[in-house]
């Protein structure tokens, strides 16, 4: 796309230069005399520039598409544009599905849940006959009144009776005021403003912004009742002594201790919440420790959470921010910022701190460049990597495939990553460029294979392969065809423009292609080429149709041809060739049947609970009414199946479930649609059968429900010390290969 735009902008300028057009009214012969001998040099310079542009290897995509459409009828050009419009709408939905992820809970929501659940409460406030369990550190930091009251009752679990001087404050209003201290927001129902003003005077003024007080707790450590200990040692549970040993036997040498607050830790992380609750139960069994007010020590192993990440971790817990500038780095060498973000993502997963994990995902995406694309793709595809980052990296590869195909980035990619990109309808490159890139990548892999076969004793000698290089004529076509066998079927050979491209002809002569393009097999070649791009407007098969990719230069040129030559009859022709949403297609149904068979062969993903499934169905129904989905479904050549598949993928990803759950959501949505249809038909409609109602849960496996791509607390014990590094930690994830439409088209091509 960028090549065609630059060519169109430069062409008028070159035309003006070569035709001598100028805004000056000075006669041409006088200007030549003024320039003198520089005229011939400037003319030569312009000729060389024009010759260089004419001999450039950059393809003219607009010209190729215009030549293809030169022999097409108005109905065929209109049908091609409608195909592109349907793909453009589907791409918008695909981007939304790839960006979907469960939202990370903000600090105010976590603190509100902490107040409502009363987890790790260490003080009880009694007012107007009602008891309100609360957290000492939060109340003392947020309100001067409570700081003064709590100072008089320092014991853990103190029960404090309160009386306010301000009249008219009932228990409900007092509870709303306490929640205000946790969230920074007052309850939505209205209150008497003068009464609130008098309460603010009694409590010492309106509270500060929540972030300000949390930052104060983090930076000062005031009211701290816990200590995060980052250590490399292995100690016993002996008591602390004055010789520099902690109460758990860890030497202070080589350790880092950071004061913190149990209430904040328990609110932000289920990992820390379980740990704090277990420690509190243990301290309740030791009455001799109750009056000492000792800080709870949470010991973390250096192999799991290195000390250099301590500041970043606490800033994420208290302030909802991930700042890699807080990482302690060595003076020379050490991990890069990208590697730190990847390791912090795994720490966030381990601690079940979603705000840290998603913040690292965003940072990795910001640092994504062509140089580290292969690294990010490889990391994202691993069990401990981020599937969300992987999807964004794949989209980056698809959008920039055209420049990547001409750079060393192409040679760094694996076959799996190339398959992921080439299987998409939204790849931004022409099929000619795709074919060239695949051949270039395959030849590079073959050279590497030949170098690996070379004896080590001869490596880099005068006669070695690596030293003298490998020429194309030395490459084995048989081995090259074996290497490219997973990739070449994904290249849509009938869409290579120009059709007589030397790259395509050479690949056919070498026997690399499993099947030659249809226009090389004889018959009316022009008609075969057209019908490979455009589905027959009459509804009958007249050629091997393959869905074209949404390559934007082709799309823009097709629209330009339609607007230039057929602008008067566009509406009439579109109305004449309009057809139902889902045109019956035998091979499409065959492909769908194969996908269902493959799904039945694989183990079923664990089902969500009925309440979650009901929420997912409601979310899908809501998304179906969004403008993008309605627009996509309204297009004449759209595929309803593909559109709704993207909607379901978005839903299951928003609920942090594997992509395979989309099939189960489709079953649930189908039953929901049947219920809606039965309700519209009236009371005499036939109810659902018991087998239909049992369909969703007939394949449920209770033993697989726990830990389905969820938090680690559901699948492993909650421990403070961990001995395994993250490289040894493997998370099992279910994956499903998406079919966005090109698969069945390619099957149509090779099984026609």
TrEMBL record:
One of the GO biological process terms: morphogenesis of a branching epithelium
Gene3D superfamilies to which the protein is assigned, alphabetical: 1.25.40.420, Potassium Channel Kv1.1, Chain A (3.30.710.10)
Superkingdom, natural source: Eukaryota
Pfam families assigned: BACK (PF07707), BTB (PF00651)
Residue ranges of every copy of the BTB domain listed in the record: 121-190, 261-326
SMART domains cross-referenced by the UniProt entry: BACK, BTB
Stretch list, region Disordered: 20-40
Protein name as it appears in the record: BTB domain-containing protein
Lineage, opening ranks: Eukaryota, Metazoa, Ecdysozoa, Arthropoda, Hexapoda
């Amino acid at each position: 796309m960028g090549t065609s735009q630059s060519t169109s902008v430069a062409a008028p300028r070159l035309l003006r230069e070569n035709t001598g057009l100028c805004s000056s009214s000075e006669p041409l012969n006088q200007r030549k005399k003024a320039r003198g001998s520089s005229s011939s040099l400037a003319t030569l310079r312009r000729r060389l520039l024009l010759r260089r542009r004419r001999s450039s290897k950059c393809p003219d995509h607009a010209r190729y598409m215009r030549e293809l459409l030169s022999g097409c009828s108005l109905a065929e050009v209109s049908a091609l544009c409608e195909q592109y419009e349907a793909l453009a709408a589907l791409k918008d939905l695909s981007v939304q599905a790839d960006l979907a992820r469960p939202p990370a809970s903000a600090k105010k929501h976590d603190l509100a849940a902490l107040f409502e659940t009363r987890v790790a409460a260490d003080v009880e406030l009694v007012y107007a006959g009602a008891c309100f369990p609360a957290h000492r550190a939060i109340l003392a930091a947020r309100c001067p009144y409570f700081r003064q009251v709590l100072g008089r009752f320092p014991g853990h679990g103190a029960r404090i009776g309160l009386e306010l001087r301000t009249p008219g404050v009932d228990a409900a209003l007092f509870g709303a005021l306490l929640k205000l201290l946790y969230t920074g927001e007052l309850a939505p129902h209205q209150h008497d403003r003068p009464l609130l003003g008098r309460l603010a005077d009694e409590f010492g003024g309106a509270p500060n912004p929540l972030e300000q007080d949390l930052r104060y707790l983090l930076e000062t450590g005031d009211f701290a009742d816990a200590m995060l200990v980052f250590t490399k040692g292995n100690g016993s549970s002996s008591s602390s002594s004055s010789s520099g040993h902690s109460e758990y036997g860890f030497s202070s040498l080589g350790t880092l201790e950071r004061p913190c607050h149990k209430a904040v830790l328990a609110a932000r992380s289920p990992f820390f919440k379980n740990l704090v609750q277990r420690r509190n139960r243990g301290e309740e069994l030791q009455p001799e420790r109750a009056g000492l007010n000792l800080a709870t020590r949470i010991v973390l192993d250096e192999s799991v959470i290195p000390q250099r990440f301590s500041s970043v971790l606490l800033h994420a817990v208290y302030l909802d921010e991930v700042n890699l500038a807080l990482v302690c780095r060595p003076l020379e060498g050490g991990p890069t910022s990208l590697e730190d973000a990847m390791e912090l993502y795994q720490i966030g997963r381990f601690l079940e701190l979603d705000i840290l994990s998603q913040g690292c995902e965003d940072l990795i995406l910001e640092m994504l460049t062509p140089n580290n694309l292969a690294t990010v793709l490889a990391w994202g595809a691993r069990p401990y990597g981020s599937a969300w980052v992987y999807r964004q990296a794949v989209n980056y590869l698809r959008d920039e495939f055209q420049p990547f195909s001409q750079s060393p980035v192409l040679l760094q990619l694996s076959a799996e990553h190339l398959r992921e990109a080439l299987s998409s309808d939204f790849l931004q490159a022409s099929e000619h460029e795709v074919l060239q890139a695949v051949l270039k990548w395959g030849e590079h892999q073959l050279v590497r294979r030949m170098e690996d076969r070379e004896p080590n004793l001869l490596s880099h000698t005068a006669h070695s392969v690596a030293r003298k290089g490998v020429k194309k004529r030395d490459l084995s076509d048989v081995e090259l065809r074996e290497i490219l066998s997973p990739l070449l079927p994904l290249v849509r050979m009938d869409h290579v423009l120009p059709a007589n491209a030397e790259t395509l002809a050479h690949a056919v002569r070498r026997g690399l292609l499993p099947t030659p393009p249809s226009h090389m097999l004889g018959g009316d070649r022009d008609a075969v080429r057209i019908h490979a791009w455009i589905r027959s407007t009459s509804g009958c098969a007249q050629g091997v149709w393959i869905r074209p990719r949404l390559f934007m230069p082709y799309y823009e040129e097709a629209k330009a041809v339609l607007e230039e030559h057929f602008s008067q009859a566009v509406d009439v022709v579109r109305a004449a060739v309009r057809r139902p949403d889902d045109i019956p297609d035998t091979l499409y149904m065959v492909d769908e049947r194969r996908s269902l068979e493959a799904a039945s062969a694989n183990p079923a993903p664990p089902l969500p609970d009925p309440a979650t499934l009901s929420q997912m169905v409601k979310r899908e129904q809501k998304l179906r009414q969004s403008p993008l989905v309605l627009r996509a479904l309204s297009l004449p050549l759209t595929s309803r199946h593909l559109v709704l598949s993207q909607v379901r993928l978005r839903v299951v990803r928003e609920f942090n479930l594997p992509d395979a759950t989309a099939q189960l959501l489709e079953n649930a949505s189908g039953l929901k649609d049947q219920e809606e249809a039965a309700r519209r038909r009236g009371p005499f409609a036939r109810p659902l059968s018991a087998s239909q109602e049992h369909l969703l849960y007939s394949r449920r496996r209770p033993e697989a429900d726990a830990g389905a791509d969820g938090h680690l607390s559901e699948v492993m014990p909650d421990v403070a010390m961990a001995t395994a590094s993250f490289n040894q930690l493997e998370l099992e994830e279910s994956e499903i290969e998406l079919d966005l439409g090109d698969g069945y088209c390619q099957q149509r091509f090779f099984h026609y």
